[in-house]
Amino acid sequence: MGPADRRSDEELVAVCNVGDAHEAARAFEALYRRHRDFVLRVARRYTRDRELALDALQETFAYLLNKFPPAGPGLTLTARLQTLLYPAAKNAAITAVRKARRAAGAGDAGLDELSAEASPDAEPIDAALTALSPERREVLTLRFVDDLSLAEIAAALDVPVGTVKSRLHLALKELRDDPRIKDLFDP
Amino acid sequence: MDQTTEQPEILPPAIASRLRRLDRAEAILDPRTDRAVLDAARSYFAARPAAAPARRSRWALPLGAAAAVLLAAVLVRPLVFHTPNADDVDGSGRVDVLDVLALARMRAAGGDASGITDTRIDELAYRIVALDSSRRAP
Asked: Which residue range forms the structural domain that includes residue B93?
């Protein structure tokens, strides 16, 4: 693998839209290598399974690929690419889990929620984090792990910015009020 | 609540760090998946029609018209008209199709700032053709 491509996402997307076969494939590879880890992280959040997460990774980039000609109309980035990839990865992960559960004869309950695996003797921080509602933990993770802005989170989740602010505020308040980790918030 | 400004939210470093570690519990990179995705991309783009031809310059039409006039004039002859006037663009002392080409090149080089319009180029070209017809008339 060569050095990382220095072109911006916007430039790479433009080449995927109109470049010749070789240029477009190279630009797409650069996009893939740049965003693969992010997509995998998102997929793992919703699958907690290596193979299913890898399936979701493939599905997510197949979705992105089909945005470009000849099958797609072309892609215009109006926000960071992560805001497009996040819902695609989340949906692909949920679909992968759903298929696996159906194959195993299980139901669909809780599919669209972040996985939580807190054990009774989990560390206080883990216990507090897993006690958050999936929606609040999702916003917290997008903000502090994926480093998305509030507007980008809103775009990724397709909700108003005010909703993102509210969820983030409540998540932080819940953590701050949790007696197990309350001390961490006090200087 | 203001929907556009972002207030700084503070998450204690210990919690942020734990959140990141929970999220990145395991490296699951797989070369086979990389290959599958990138092979799919190559196949996908290979189906794309050949690259579109380069965009035509806005001067292609006037230059083409001038070239056509030159060709027509060479075939019809005579090329030279001894009519000294402002249309003698190249200063050769004659007004001929070379003046049309010179005019078109000046416009191509200077753009709108040259003050030369497509209409003027067309008029000169057609005038030369008309002159040629009048000389051949009995």
From this structure: 79-138
